[in-house]
Every structure is written in C-alpha cells, then in structure tokens.
Specification:
heterotrimer, A alpha+beta (about 325), B alpha+beta (about 160), C alpha+beta (about 525), B: about 160 residues, alpha+beta, five-stranded antiparallel beta sheet, 5 helices, about 40% helix, disordered N terminus, C: about 525 residues, Thrombin, subunit H, Porin, eight-stranded antiparallel barrel, six-stranded mixed beta sheet, 12 helices, flat
C-alpha cells in the first residue's frame, strides 16, 4: 500500500512537472542466441586465436519468415499500447552503413581490450532500453505442429530479465503463422504486465546500471591513493563511492568489487532524467550518468587522464591513466 | 410506516449487495484456448436462482476475473494477469464498480457468451438453492482494459512517459 | 415374531443393497463422439465360411459409425460350428492379428513406403464437430482450421467387431422349403491407444518428408513392431432364420450391433435438448437416428459435497429426423422428439442419451368380447409424430381352452392402431383388428392339417374388432390399459364354409359359445 502510494505520488509528480521530452523506453525484438544457433544463423569470428560464433541477426531476419511474423505480431500489440517496437532490420542496416563509413575514417581506436560483442554494440547503437529476446521451436507431432516459445524481456541497462514467458501453442495441423500468432497472443498480457511492473519500479527507483572503474598500469595513482577533502584524508575509492551515493536515486548502489586497480558498482539506480548543460531534462544512460564523475576526476585535485567507454546502455567502463 | 419499512428493506438489500460485492471471489474460471486478438476465451461458472440468473452471474464473474483476479493458464494458453492487480482498487472505486456491474450495466459490453444455445449437460447443475451453470464466453479483454484506463481506474502502460 | 424379525432384516438388507447400488451409480456422460468400426468374421474352416464372410462383408453398420477399411477381415478358430466360440478363444484369435496396427494404417492412409497422412483424421474431425465445437473454434485464435484436429481424439474410438456364427441348422417344412437358422455372437474390441499412445506412435512411426533413408527404415521397423492391444469391451448374441445361410447371417448383424450398442456406453449417442415445444436436439441422420428411436433424458445436480450426479428424467422418442449429414457450420438442423414418460417436462439443456428398445409392447389382460379369457396382445410402434400421434401394428394371440368343453380355440389377430396422446401419460388409440378364431377338438393335436386350406377355413371364424384403447403410464415402461371394443364374428353369414367352426361353437355338447358382442378389457402393458 505504501509503495503503491509512493508510485502514485511519483507518477503524479512526473505529470505535474510535465516532462514533455519524457522519453519512452524503446523496445526491440532480437532473436535469441539459442535460436540463431539452432537454425545456423551464426557467424564464425576469429577472436584472439579462438573461433567464436556470434549470432548473425541480419541473416536470421532475412531468411526466416516466421520470426518476421512474430515480430510483426508483437509490434502490432505494442503499438496499440503506445510503444512502437524498433525495427531490428532497420537498425542492422543502419549499423552496416555506419560501419562502412567508419572504416573509411581513421578514428581513435585505443581500447582494443574493451571490445563490445555484436549484441552489446547493437544495444548501444539502437539505444533500445528493453530487448525482447525471442526464441521459439517448432515441434512436429506426426501430422501436427506445435510451437514452443520463450520470450524474455531484458532490461538493456542491467541485463536483468524483466519478464519471462514460456509456453506452447496448440498442437494442430494449421498454418504455422496461426500457431506463431497464437503464441504471441498467449504471452501478450502477461508480458505487458511484466513491463508495467518494471516501469513502476523504474519510476520509483530509477534505472539500474553498473559502473566499472579500471586503472591502467601507466596511471600514477590507484584507487587507494588518498586525497584531502574538507580537511580529511580519503581514499580515491571512497570519494567515488561518495559521489555515487550523492548521485544515485536514494543512494542505491552496491560496491561489488573494490581493489587498488579495480572498482565495480552494480545495482546502481540512476535517475531516468538529468539536466544537460543547457538545463534541459534529458533521458540519460550509463555513460551520461558518469560524465560528471569523469569531469570531476579530470579536475584538481585528481588531475587524472580519464576515459569512459560504454558497453551497451547499462554498463560503462571508466579507465584512469589512459583514454 | 409502510414507506419506512420499504426504505429499510431496500437499504438492507443494497447493503447485502454491497456485502456480497466485496466477498465476490467464489467462482471457477478456466482458460479454454488462446482467443482471437484482443479477447479471452474462457469457461466460467455462475450461480443463480434459475438458469438465466446463473448465466448472468457467470458473465459478471468472467468480467470480474479479468479485472481483479486474472485468468489461470491452460496447457496451451498462458495465464492472464488482472487488469487491476492492486487489491485495493475495488474498495477505492467501489461506486464505479457498483455501477459497472449493476444489472444490465456497462460490463455486458465486454462479454459475449459463445455457448451454443443454453448451458447444457453437465454444465447445467441443480444445486441447493438454485442452479450452477458453466458457459463459454469471450471477454473483450483489450477493450475492457482500455475502458478502465480511460476511466482512470487502470493505469496505462505508457502513463508516466 | 421370529418371522417378523427375519422379514425386517431382509427389508433392511435389501435397503442397504439398494443404497449401495445407488452410491456406485455412475454419472451418465453428456458427450458423444463418433466411433469407427470394422466388421470381422470368425471362420471355422468349414463350408459355411464363405457364406458368413460374404454376409459380413456386405453389411454396413449404421451411419453413426465411420468405417475403417482394414486389410484383415477374418480370423480363424478351429472349432466345430455346433459350439459357440468363447470369449477366450475369440481374444486369442483376435490377438494373433495386429488389428491395432491395421487400424492405424487405415486411418492414416499408410502407403507401401510407410508414408502416412491425416486426411481421414481431419475429415472425421470436421465431420464429428458439433455446433459448440465450431463456435469454440471461431472464438480461438487457431480458428476453424483446427477443427480437423479434433479427429485425433477419435482414433481411440476405433473398434473391431468379430462375429461368430454357430449352430447353423437346416430345416425343411412339409412343402419342402428349406430354412436356415443361425445363431450369432459378436465380440467388440477397442483399440488400446490413449492420447499418450498416439503421441508415441507419431514419434516412433511417423515418417517426415525430410527423413533420411536410415530414419525411414527405422520408423518402418518400429511400425511393424507396434504392440498395441485390442481390448475386449462387450459381446452380444442373437439368432435368425432365413432362406439361406448368408441371408440368415446378414439378418443377425444389425441385431448384434444394437446389442453391442446397449453395452458400450461410448456408442450411445448423447446430446443436449436445444429447444422445447417441440423438443429438439441436434442429432439426426449422422447419428443413425430413426423415427421412434428411444432416448432417455437426464439432468445433472450437485450434492452438498459438490459431487456431480445424473438424474434420470423420463423417456422420449425421435419424431422428425433432421438430415445433418453435412459438416457443421454452427447451425445444425435439429431433430424433433416427443416425451413419452417422466413427471417433469424435459427441459432445454438436459442431456438425452440413446436407450434402444424394440418398440414392442406386450399386454396381458382379461375381458369380454367373443370370449372371456386371459388375452395376450402385442403392439409394435411403427411411427411417432412430434404431436404425440403414434401408429402401431397390433397382434393378438389368445387361447380359449373352453372350460370343459369338447373343443378349444386359438385366436390370432392383426390390426392397426392410431394413438393420440392427450398428455404424455395418457394415450387413447382407436384401432381395428381382423382375427381368426380357429377351433378344434380339445384332444386334437394341431399343426398337421394346417396346410389343408379348406379344412383350416372350415374351422375358422373370422372376427372384425373395432375398438378403442386407453393406456396410462404407471411407471414407464409399465403401463395400464383398458380397451373397449365390439367383436363381430362373421362366420354366420358365410355358414357354408364354416361348418366345423359352427359345430364346435354352437352345436357340440358344451359348445364354446363364442359370439359377437361388446367387450371391455383391462390389463398391463410392458414395452420392450
């Protein structure tokens, strides 16, 4: 009861303040790794001498009509709920063009050791807040077909599962599209309810991200270096923790790892919106959230060389000693 | 004197109805299959003095379940959450729902019976004090949800953004 | 005192027994799906094999059954035909053949390469679909396409009926006409295949287009190794006489099916009453419904523990039969019925279930007329109308031993009655019968001169009997009846030919004294 009142109050506050630029979470459907693996929509990539297979989304979307049926059916009901689904196909095309353009340019490319996977890159580039990880399998029962499905809604920031939906369609000898659409209608309301729950939490507690700070070997200081703040000596790590406490929603975050060379914070709840340099409210992601921290570390008394690189929307790596 | 008496009995009746309204949870409902887009296809039971009253009660129950209780899943259909998951909704909007579920009330627009003819066979049972019937109904779940959202009873998914 | 005690103990015991019986009374099911059958003949290795096999091959069971066109149509039991085949022998003979495998091959149109399809299953599913199924399918996302899949359920309703013919007797009458009497017994077996069994069958034996040769071979092997039992469910017996063995055997078959129908609950059609005034239900030719077919109505109730009970609510007969042999589109034409018993009016939504009878009423009563005697009558229901009008063929067989007179008579009559129901409990039927009162000396052994027409006529008195019969239900099928009639003995006007009759009747010492006159008869009727 208390919680729901709080949510209601917050909602009211949101409406009164009237963030006209309030940004709806964007949602994108992505075929699950297991699905791509099963149907052979994978790319073999040589990474540091090892061959790893990564999902080949563009082939999956192009060659599998069923997944397009599913995405269309889901886009339909999400649109009815005022949440248009981002098209994975379009996003992939955009990425391809971007890659081509990038290859022509000689960009700054220092962080070879902080690689993003294709999915992470996709997530960051598409800026989808919620990824719908879709997997389905068609079973044959003699003349009948049955579709089993598994849809996970994943918060792109925290990689946490917002809502999981598994089930089976009817077993029948009917066009496959009927069974696929039946699946979508089957999980639709449960899925929406999971989203609603997630949004409620979002409004009440902010977004969840993780932040990692790493020290390069050439950095003159580590996280145990002490600085004087307000006349007291504090370790750099403590100062950063204090910043986190000040800037997270109700000071919510967990220090997951703390050493001289590495600091990791997870379950970091950040506000949905922050003011940009012109004082406007904008939606922020992990990278935008740590920008003030990065600026602070660059200034006196720390004077550090600081770089930040996002890994998806909800994870950011801050490096000290190099960019 | 007579008027006072009738007024008292009417208010007592009203009180009765309100009372039964709050403890309204004693019915069975099962999901038959995944319904056509925007609908829930369920089998629901109702009780009444006669078959017609029991059928009406079953329709009310179907709508009630979609709003407050949710629908259980079946082998080939996932469960459906209630439109108003907050258990306090019924109390805080009691007048609204009294009107909504009044005899011949707006709820009827969101439910249609798909039983062929009248409830029959084992779906029509004489019980102590009346009849218990099971009927197949389609609940226009999406429309019902939108109606409750528009009336400010349920929250829209996109509200707050 | 002791006697009284034992009597009350007996009553008490009967009461307990009845109570126990009532407790285990099964709930009558309200659903019915089509079943499929194949008729099989049990051969004995004698000269009657071909005639009986031919009779079975030519027989088509009621249209309520789908027919499985399986390969093996006979099994062999080495036993003399003078003895019937026992259940154990039949089980062993049926067990030797892989009937379940043959049924699956037939239903799934299995070809020589082991490929199967579900065309028959889908057809049957669509054909069996009731209006409720169609409406339900429309409400569901997968839609009416999935109606055909209802046929999967029907596979478990596959039966074979093994028929045995025994005690085949040749009889010759005096004129040299040959008659054959045949006894028949049928054993019904159901395929022992549950829903899991079917899934297992699909998994092991169903060959997909994209299966490679090794998989195909393995699946073909698995099919040949299928071990699905045929489960004995019921047996029925009958007998018939006809001019040839084949005809007599053929005559037995429909009786056997009816007999099995009464013993296999799944074969009894059940449906809900869809309307009153007149009573209607959505069954018809598809379920093999015929005019006069008897059904029993049931309603359902719950006791205080929530246990479901079925309550029998009287009988009804089919009147107008709807042709519903097409696929259901949600608005099947119903057949009409007339309620013939039960205190409560049969209501919409009640279940009615097939309850075969012969439509044969047997009446025993006493009364006057041409003679005073205990009279045995029978009526056979020919046609029933929705407004309760019924046509009967009447028969009367009465012996008058004449109470010490020198002669005795056999009275035989046939007639027609048209019954009108004022209420379902009360029928009034004007009728007309024409009878023959055959007289002979008491010591006279009848039969030997029957073929002598002239002599037969001389001893006969023809009787025309117009009358009116009223029947009232006591506890259906027990009814009480009364009839008023006037017997017109016609021998007087044709006295030349009827000399023997008139001698015994009027002139012999202590004559029979049959005469024209008014009669009233009271008695009881039981319908079989």
């Amino acid at each position: 009861m208390k919680k729901s009142l709080l949510i209601a109050a917050l909602l009211l506050a949101c409406q009164i303040i009237g963030w006209s630029q309030a940004k709806k979470p964007t949602i994108m459907v992505v075929p699950a790794d297991a699905f791509c693996e099963r149907y052979g929509f994978v790319q073999k990539v040589n990474s540091m001498g090892e061959t790893v297979s990564t999902p080949d989304y563009s082939r999956a979307m192009k060659e599998n009509a069923d997944i397009r049926t599913l995405v269309a059916a889901m886009a339909d009901f999400m649109a009815k709920n005022d949440f248009p689904i981002q098209s994975l196909e379009q996003e992939l095309k955009r990425l391809q063009t971007e890659d081509a353009e990038l290859a022509m340019m000689t960009g700054k490319n220092s962080g070879a050791d902080v690689d993003e996977t294709p999915l992470e890159r996709l997530r960051r580039s598409a800026k989808a807040d919620i990824i719908l990880d879709l997997d389905y399998e068609i079973h044959r029962l003699g003349p009948q077909k049955q579709v089993s499905f598994n849809l996970q809604a994943i918060d792109a920031y925290s990689s946490k599962i917002i809502s999981g939906n598994t089930g089976v369609s009817s077993a029948a000898n009917v066009p496959l599209t009927s069974l696929l659409e039946e699946c979508v209608l089957s999980f639709k309301d449960n899925f929406l309810s999971g989203l609603q729950h997630y949004f409620d939490d979002l409004f009440a507690n902010g977004r969840e991200i993780s932040v990692t700070l790493l020290r390069y070997n050439n950095c003159p200081v580590d996280f145990e270096e002490e600085y004087t703040v307000n006349g007291e000596e504090y370790e750099l790590a403590e100062i950063i923790e204090a910043w986190m406490a000040d800037n997270t929603v109700e000071g919510r975050f967990t220090t997951a790892a703390k050493s001289a060379n590495r600091l990791r914070f997870n379950q970091v709840r950040i506000p949905l919106y922050a003011q940009n340099m012109n004082g406007r409210d904008v939606a922020i992601d992990a990278e935008a959230f740590v920008k003030p921290l990065v600026r602070m570390l660059k200034k006196t008394p720390y004077k550090l060389t600081v770089g930040s690189s996002p890994r998806g929307l909800g994870d950011v790596w801050i490096t000290i000693g190099d960019k | 004197m007579l008027m006072t008496f009738s007024a008292v009995s009417a208010s007592a009746q009203n009180k009765d109805r309100r009372k039964s309204f709050k403890s309204w949870d004693n019915y069975e409902i099962t999901t038959e299959k995944v319904g056509v887009d925007g609908t829930k296809f369920v089998k629901v039971w109702g009780f009444g003095k006669n078959v017609d009253a029991a059928t009406m009660n079953a329709k009310e129950n179907a709508v009630h379940a979609c709003i407050f209780r949710g629908l259980p899943g079946s082998a080939t259909a996932m469960s459906t959450p209630p439109i108003c998951p907050n258990p306090d909704t019924l109390v805080s909007h009691e007048d609204y729902f009294q009107n909504f579920f009044a005899p011949g009330g707006p709820y009827l627009a969101y439910v249609s019976m798909t039983t062929d003819g009248v409830p029959s066979g084992t779906d029509r049972r004489k019980v102590k004090g009346g009849y218990k019937v099971g009927i197949y109904v389609q609940v226009m779940y999406d429309n019902l949800k939108r109606k409750l959202e528009a009336d400010g009873i349920a929250r829209k998914l996109s509200s707050g953004f | 005192m002791l006697k009284k005690l034992s009597l009350s103990a007996f009553v008490c015991f009967v009461g307990v027994a009845l109570f126990a019986q009532a407790k285990i009374k099964e709930v009558v099911t309200s659903d019915y799906n089509r079943n499929s059958v194949t008729m099989i003949v049990i051969q004995r290795g004698d000269s009657y094999d071909s005639a009986t096999a031919s009779a079975v091959r030519k027989f088509t069971p009621s249209s309520k059954f789908d027919l499985n066109n399986i390969k093996t149509r006979s099994v062999k039991v080495n036993k003399l035909r003078s003895e019937p085949v026992t259940q154990t022998e039949a089980d062993a003979a049926v067990g030797k053949v892989g009937f379940a495998r043959e049924i699956l091959a037939a239903i799934f149109n299995r070809d020589s390469k082991g490929m199967m399809d579900d065309k028959t299953v889908r057809y049957r599913g669509n054909y069996d679909a009731k209006d409720q199924d169609v409406i339900n399918a429309r409400a569901a996302r997968v839609g009416e396409d999935a109606l055909g899949d209802l046929g999967q359920k029907l596979v478990a309703g596959s039966y074979i009926v093994a028929t045995d013919f025994y005690k085949v007797d040749r009889q010759t009458d005096k004129k040299g006409n040959v008659y054959w009497s045949v006894n028949a017994r049928a054993f019904a077996y159901q395929i022992g295949l549950g829903e899991d069994g079917l899934s297992e069958f699909y998994e092991k034996c169903w060959i997909y287009e994209d299966d490679n040769q090794a998989t195909r071979d393995a699946k073909i092997k698995a099919f040949q190794a299928l071990d699905i039992p045929m489960v004995p469910v019921a047996s029925a017996s009958t007998a018939s006489t006809s001019s040839s063995v084949e005809a007599a055997a053929g005559d037995c078959l429909s009786g056997l099916i009816t007999g099995l129908e009464n013993r296999i609950a799944n074969w009894e059609v059940a449906v809900a009453i869809s309307a009153r005034k007149p009573l209607r239900a959505k069954i018809g030719t598809k379920e093999g419904l015929s005019n006069g077919a008897r059904y029993r109505a049931y309603s359902y109730s719950e006791d205080s523990h929530g246990n479901l009970k079925s309550v029998a609510r009287g009988y009804l007969r089919a009147t107008e039969i709807a042709n519903n042999s097409g696929m259901s589109a949600g608005d099947t034409e119903p057949s009409e019925f007339y309620q013939i018993s039960g205190i409560a009016n049969i209501d919409e939504g009640w279940t009615i279930k097939q309850s075969n009878d012969l439509g044969l009423g047997v009446m025993l009563g006493v009364g006057g007329g041409i003679f005073n005697s205990l009279r045995l009558n029978a009526d056979y229901l020919v046609r029933t109308k929705t407004n309760g009008q019924m046509s009967y063929i009447l028969a009367d067989l009465t012996m008058d031993l004449g109470k010490g007179s020198s002669a005795s008579s056999i009275y035989m009559a046939l007639g027609y009655a048209y019954g009108l129901h004022l209420t379902r409990f009360f029928e009034i039927a004007p009728y007309l019968m024409l009878g023959d009162d055959y007289m002979s000396a008491s010591s006279y052994s009848s039969g030997s001169d029957l073929e002598d027409t002239a002599r037969f006529l001389r001893r006969s008195g023809f009787v025309l009997e117009p009358g009116m019969r009223a029947t009232v239900n006591l506890a259906y099928p027990l009814q009480a009846y009364a009839r008023m009639y006037y017997d017109i003995l016609m021998y007087n006007s044709l006295s030349v030919s009827y000399d023997s009759y008139s001698y015994y009747n009027d002139r012999a010492p202590s004559p029979m004294n049959h005469h024209s006159g008014f009669g009233v008869q009271f008695g009881l009727k039981w319908t079989f």
